[in-house]
Design goal:
The complex is a heterodimer of chains A (about 800) and B (about 170). Chain A has about 800 residues and is an alpha/beta fold. In chain A, the strands form nine sheets. Chain A has a seven-stranded mixed beta sheet with strand order 14-13-24-23-22-15-16. Chain A has a five-stranded mixed beta sheet with strand order 2-1-5-3-4, with helices on one face. The chains are: A alpha/beta (about 800), B alpha+beta (about 170). Bound molecules: iron/sulfur cluster and FE2/S2 (inorganic) cluster (2 copies).
C-alpha cells in the first residue's frame, strides 16, 4: 500500500482511502449512506449541521463524517446504537424550529430534510413550544424564499463565496436569531444564482417561476441539452402532461459539472410565451390568415420553386439544431442556391476561407481549470458562457493569470491580471503590441507579422501580457463571442492567433450561441459544405445577402429585429424581397411586417436534436415536451419541403437518420485551429469619430431567452441605453439620466444615458439585440449622439 | 436606512484608527480589522451602526458587504438601532444569576421605567438586552457601564452608579 492510501473499516467493510480524505467522501464512494445537510462535494466543509455523526472507535464522542479525516486502521460504525442516537438527536433539534408544512411546501417530495427525517427521525416531536418565524426577503425574480424553513446549513452562502464568486447571501444574527439572507433588501445578481435552489436541502430556496405549479412526483424527467452557449450544459427537463415545468442540471463533470447557468435553467419559460406561434400563417393581400400545414407548405414550396436560385437567401442562427442546420443547407443547395449562412452577427467574413472546420475551444472545458495563463479577447465570458467563466475562475483562484481585453471592462468574479477596455482599433493595436513584446523577448513570431511589429514599442501592459502568456506552460488565447461583432474581425483573429502562436498558447474560440460548431459541421455557411469541405460554388454571406436584397428569404428561427448585429441592414434587406418565408417560433411585429408565409417551429425541448459544443462534443437529446400548438420540428419541416421540391435525399424518418448523415460527412474531420495568416499583417489605424461598441447581453442572445419572463425581469435583462465614460459624456455635453438621440446610418433611437468608466473614450456602448436598439445600425460602427 | 447617511464616508479619525489596526495584521488579511473598525465607527456614531456605515467599512477593508453585516449583527457589542448615551449591560449568565442578577435587572427596569433592550426617553441610559458572561464571575452580580466593570452589585450601589451618569 502506498503512502497515500490508508485502510479503514466501515460497518465491518474494509475500505482503502486517500490519506487526508474526509470520511464521508470515502463512504460516499463506497455507497455507504450517511445522512447530511451541510456537506456538498463541490463546497468547502462547514460541518455545522451535525447530521452526519457516526461512531468512531476510540473517539470519546460521535464524529461528523464530513469533517473527520480518515486514519489508518480507523473503525467506523454508521448505524451502531451510538451513531443512530446521535443522528436522531440532531434530527430532533433540526425539526424543533422547522415548520411541519410539507403539504404546502414546494420542496415536498424531493426534500432532503423530509427524506432524512423519514429515515433517521422520530415519528413524534417532543417539542411543544413556539417555533421561530423568519420573514422573507425578495431576492429577485428567480428564487423564492421561505426562510422559516431554513436549517442554516450555509450551502447557499458557501456557493456564493466559493463558486459564484459573489458573496450575496450571509448568515446574520446569532443563535436563535440567525437568519440567512441579504440583510438589506436586494436581488441576487449572480448569473449562476439558481444553483442555490438545488443546493438548498429544504424548501427555503425554491425556483420562483415554477413554484406551486407541480409536485415532484407528478413530473417526468427527460435528459436535455442547453442551447444558449457553447458549453452545451447537460440538463433535465421536468415535464407534466407534455409541458416543461422546470429545468434542473444533469451532472456531467466534463461539461457543466453539477451546475447550470440561470439562462439554461429558466429559459424554458419562453416555450410558453404568448408570442409562440401555434399554427401556420399566410399573408394574402396584406392580411394574415391561419391555414393548415398543407396549405402553408404548398405555398412555401411554390414560392421556393418560383424564385431563381441565385435570388434566394437562407438565413438561420447558431441556436438551431445540427439536424436543422444540415437540412437547411441541403435544401438551399438542392435548389441550386449556395446563399446560406448562420452568421447574422458577424459583419466581417473576409477571411472565411481560412476558418477552421469549426470554431473549436482548442482544448476541453476541463482543461481550462488547469491553465496557468489565459487571455480572453473580446468576449464577456462571465455572461456569454457562465460555466466557462466558472472554470477560468477556478484556474485564477489556483494562481493562474487570467486577462481580458474587451470593448468594455466587465466586472469579473475572480482576480485578473488585466481586465481593460479598448476601442476596436486599440484592441488590434494591443494584440500587435503583445506580439511585439513577445518578439523582443526572443519568441518566434510568424514572419507575416514581423514587418508590422518592427515599428511598435510595447507598453508595460503589453509586456505584462506577453510575459504572462509566454512564461506559462499551459496558456491559452481565447477569442470570445464578442469578437464577431468587431468590424475588423478577420484582422483581430489573425493577431490573436499570432499572439497565441508566439507565446506557445493554445488558440481557441468561444463561439456565440449553442451550436455554432454544429452550423459549421453541417455546412451552414456559404463557402463550405457538410464536414467542412469547400463548396464548389461559394454563396453569399448573410451580410452580402442583405446588402443586395434577395427576391426571396428563407428565415429559419430568425427574429428580424434582434438576431442581427445590424438590424437596420436586416430591415432594408428583408423589405426589398418579394417573398419571405419564416420558419420560426415567435411572433413579432417585425416578423409579421416582413414575412409572407409563417411556419411555426418547435423549439429545443420539443424536438429530437443534436448540438455540438465548443469542444466538438456531439450531444443529443430526445424531445421532452409536446410542441406548442401545431408547431413542428424544424428537421421535419425542412424534410417535407425537400421532398416536395428536390428529387431524393430527403427521406429521413428520424432526426437520428439526419444526424447519421452529418456524422458520415464529418468522419474525417480533425479539429485544428491553426490559422493561415495574410501575407503581411497590418495594424489598422484608429478611425476618427465616435464609435458604437456593443455586446449581446446575456438574456438577449436568442429568441427563447428573450421570451423567458423571469429572466427578463432580472437586472441582467438590459434595455437599449447609451453608456459612456464620464469624460466622453462631458465631451458630448451629456450627463447621467439624460436622454440622447443616437443615430447610425440615418436611423435613430432615443436612449437613456448611463455613465460608466468601464467604457473607452471615443466609444459609446449600446447593447445589441435588445429593445431600444433594434432600429439601429451595426453593433460596432460609427454613431452620432446628441442630447435629445 | 436613513437617507442622510446613504453612501457615508469614514471620518479621517476612523480611517487612521483602522489603519493603525491594519498594521497588526498580514497585508492580505484586511478583514481581520473588521471588529476594531466597527467598534471605532460605532463609537463615533453615538453608539450604534447603520447599514451605510457598515458598507463604508466593507468598502474600506475590501470585504463583501454582507460579511460585515454578519459581523455587525452577530456580536452583542454592536448596536444596529439608535441607543441612549450610556450603555448599561447587566450580566445574567449563570454565576451572576445565582448571585442575584435578576433582582438587579428588575430594579433597573423599575427605576428607569424601561425594559431591557430599551433606552430612556431622555436619551440618557440604554439597557442592553440579555448580556452574557463578561468574565467577572467571581464578582457577580456585575454590570458593565460604558466600558467600565462594576462588580459585587447591590441595589444601593446600582442606584449610585446610575444616578452618577449625566
Ligand atoms: S437557505 Fe437553504 S441552503 Fe441556505 S442555509 Fe438555509 S437551508 Fe441551507
Ligand atoms: S454534513 Fe457533516 S456536519 Fe453537516
Ligand atoms: S456569569 Fe456574569 S460575569 Fe460570568
Amino acid at each position: 500500500m502506498s503512502d497515500d492510501t490508508v485502510s479503514i473499516e466501515v460497518d465491518g467493510q474494509l475500505l482503502s482511502a486517500r490519506r487526508g480524505a474526509m470520511l464521508i467522501e470515502v463512504t460516499d464512494a463506497a455507497g455507504i449512506s450517511i445522512p447530511r445537510f451541510c456537506y456538498h462535494d463541490k463546497l468547502s466543509v462547514a460541518a455545522n449541521c451535525r447530521m452526519c455523526l457516526v461512531e468512531v472507535e476510540k473517539a470519546p464522542k460521535p464524529m461528523p463524517a464530513c469533517a473527520t479525516p480518515v486514519m489508518d486502521g480507523m473503525k467506523v460504525y454508521t448505524n451502531s446504537q451510538r451513531a443512530v442516537q446521535a443522528q436522531r438527536g440532531t434530527m430532533e433539534f433540526l425539526l424543533i424550529n422547522h415548520p411541519l408544512d410539507c403539504p404546502i411546501c414546494d420542496q415536498g417530495g424531493e426534500c432532503e430534510l423530509q427524506d432524512v427525517a423519514m429515515g433517521y427521525g422520530h415519528g413524534v416531536s417532543r417539542y411543544a413550544d413556539t417555533k421561530r418565524v423568519v420573514f422573507d426577503k425578495d431576492i429577485g425574480p428567480l428564487i423564492a424564499t421561505e426562510m422559516t424553513r431554513c436549517i442554516h446549513c450555509t450551502r447557499c452562502v458557501r456557493f456564493g463565496e466559493e463558486i459564484a464568486g459573489l458573496r450575496e447571501l450571509g448568515a446574520t444574527g446569532r443563535g436563535e436569531d440567525v437568519r440567512i439572507g441579504t440583510y438589506v433588501e436586494k436581488s441576487v445578481v449572480s448569473e449562476m444564482s439558481g444553483n442555490v435552489i438545488d443546493l438548498c436541502p429544504v424548501g427555503a430556496l425554491t425556483a420562483k417561476p415554477s413554484r406551486y405549479t407541480a409536485r415532484a412526483w407528478e413530473l417526468l424527467q427527460h435528459a436535455g441539452i442547453a442551447t444558449h452557449d457553447c458549453v452545451g450544459s447537460n440538463l433535465f427537463h421536468h415535464t407534466r402532461d407534455g409541458r416543461v415545468m422546470r429545468v434542473v442540471p444533469r451532472e456531467n463533470h466534463a461539461v457543466n459539472e453539477v451546475w447550470l447557468s440561470d439562462r439554461d435553467r429558466f429559459s424554458y419559460e419562453g416555450l410558453y410565451s404568448d408570442a409562440r406561434l401555434r399554427q401556420p400563417l399566410l399573408k394574402e393581400a396584406g392580411e394574415w390568415h391561419a391555414v393548415e400545414w398543407e396549405t402553408a407548405l404548398a405555398a412555401a414550396g411554390s414560392a421556393l420553386m418560383a424564385a431563381a436560385p441565385q435570388e434566394m437567401g437562407f438565413l438561420t442562427t447558431s441556436s438551431a439544431s445540427l439536424e436543422e442546420l444540415y437540412l437547411l443547407q441541403k435544401l438551399a443547395r438542392g435548389l441550386g442556391c449556395a446563399n446560406v449562412d448562420y452568421r447574422l452577427r458577424q459583419p466581417d467574413c473576409d477571411d472565411q476561407a481560412h476558418d477552421p472546420v469549426m470554431p473549436w475551444l482548442g482544448q476541453n472545458l476541463g482543461d481550462l481549470e488547469h491553465l496557468q495563463a489565459a487571455l480572453v479577447v473580446a468576449g464577456n465570458v462571465r455572461k456569454d458562457q457562465p460555466l466557462v467563466a466558472h472554470r477560468l475562475r477556478k484556474a485564477a483562484l489556483d494562481g493562474a493569470q487570467v486577462s481580458l481585453l474587451n470593448v468594455r471592462a466587465y466586472e469579473q468574479t475572480f482576480p485578473t491580471l488585466v481586465n481593460d477596455a479598448l476601442a476596436p482599433a486599440a484592441l488590434l493595436q494591443e494584440l500587435a503590441g503583445i506580439a511585439a513584446a513577445l518578439l523582443s523577448q526572443g519568441a518566434e513570431v510568424p514572419a507575416q507579422a514581423q514587418e508590422a511589429l518592427a515599428k511598435i514599442k510595447p507598453t508595460t501592459r503589453q509586456r505584462k501580457l506577453a510575459d504572462s502568456l509566454g512564461s506559462a506552460e499551459r496558456a491559452t488565447v481565447l477569442l470570445g463571442s464578442g469578437a464577431q461583432l468587431h468590424p475588423g474581425y478577420s484582422v483581430l483573429r489573425q493577431w490573436a492567433s499570432v499572439v497565441a502562436a508566439a507565446s506557445g498558447s493554445v488558440f481557441g474560440y468561444l463561439p456565440e450561441g449553442g451550436n455554432a460548431a454544429g452550423a459549421w459541421l453541417a455546412g451552414c455557411v456559404p463557402h463550405r459544405g457538410p464536414g467542412g469541405v469547400s463548396a464548389d460554388t461559394a454563396g453569399q454571406t448573410a451580410g452580402e445577402m442583405l446588402r443586395t436584397p434577395r427576391r426571396l428569404y428563407f428565415l429559419h428561427g430568425v427574429d428580424p429585429e434582434f438576431d442581427f448585429a445590424d438590424p437596420q441592414l436586416a430591415h432594408s434587406g428583408l423589405s426589398g424581397a418579394d417573398c419571405v418565408i419564416a420558419v420560426t417560433a415567435f411572433e413579432s411585429d417585425a416578423l409579421l411586417e416582413h414575412a409572407d408565409i409563417i411556419l411555426p417551429l418547435a423549439l429545443h425541448a420539443e424536438i429530437d436534436a443534436t448540438y455540438v459544443n465548443a469542444e466538438g462534443r456531439w450531444q443529443n437529446a430526445n424531445a421532452a415536451a409536446r410542441p406548442c400548438g401545431k408547431a413542428r420540428a424544424g428537421w421535419k419541416i425542412l424534410r417535407v419541403l425537400g421532398n416536395r421540391l428536390i428529387d431524393g435525399g430527403f427521406d429521413h424518418n428520424s432526426a437520428r437518420a439526419v444526424r447519421g448523415e452529418v456524422q458520415a460527412c464529418c468522419e474525417s474531420v480533425r479539429l485544428d485551429n491553426s490559422l493561415p495568416l495574410a501575407e503581411a499583417l497590418r495594424v489598422p489605424a484608429a478611425s476618427r469619430g465616435l464609435l458604437r461598441v456593443a455586446e449581446v447581453p446575456i438574456y438577449a442572445v436568442d429568441a427563447l431567452t428573450r421570451h423567458a419572463m423571469a429572466l427578463q425581469k432580472t437586472g441582467d435583462a438590459l434595455r437599449g441605453a447609451v453608456h459612456m465614460s464620464a469624460a466622453q459624456a462631458e465631451k458630448e455635453k451629456l450627463t447621467a439620466g439624460d436622454t440622447a438621440r443616437v443615430t447610425q446610418n440615418g436611423s435613430s433611437a432615443v436612449l437613456l444615458v448611463h455613465i460608466e468608466d468601464s467604457i473607452p473614450n471615443g466609444c459609446v456602448w449600446i447593447p445589441s439585440g435588445v429593445p431600444g436598439s433594434e432600429k439601429l445600425g451595426p453593433a460596432c460602427g460609427a454613431v452620432e449622439v446628441f442630447k435629445a | 436606512m436613513s437617507t442622510a447617511q446613504q453612501g457615508v464616508e469614514l471620518s479621517e479619525h476612523a480611517r487612521a484608527e483602522i489603519d493603525a489596526w491594519l498594521q497588526r495584521f498580514p497585508y492580505n488579511q484586511k478583514q481581520s480589522a473588521v471588529l476594531a473598525a466597527l467598534r471605532e465607527v460605532q463609537h463615533e456614531n453615538n453608539g450604534y451602526l447603520t447599514t451605510p456605515l457598515m458598507d463604508a467599512v466593507a468598502d474600506y477593508l475590501g470585504m463583501p458587504r454582507i460579511a460585515v453585516y454578519e459581523v455587525g449583527s452577530f456580536y452583542s457589542m454592536f448596536e444596529l438601532q439608535p441607543v441612549a448615551r450610556h450603555c448599561v449591560a447587566v450580566c445574567t449568565n449563570i454565576s451572576c444569576m445565582l448571585t442575584g442578577a435578576d433582582t438587579i435587572v428588575a430594579h433597573i427596569e423599575e427605576k428607569l421605567q424601561i425594559k431591557v433592550g430599551e433606552s430612556t426617553a431622555d436619551g440618557r441610559i440604554f439597557l442592553k438586552p440579555e448580556e452574557e458572561c463578561l468574565a467577572a464571575c467571581a464578582g457577580g452580580p456585575m454590570m458593565q457601564v460604558d466600558h467600565v466593570y462594576h462588580t459585587d452589585l447591590t441595589i444601593e450601589k446600582v442606584d449610585q452608579i446610575l444616578d452618577g451618569l449625566d
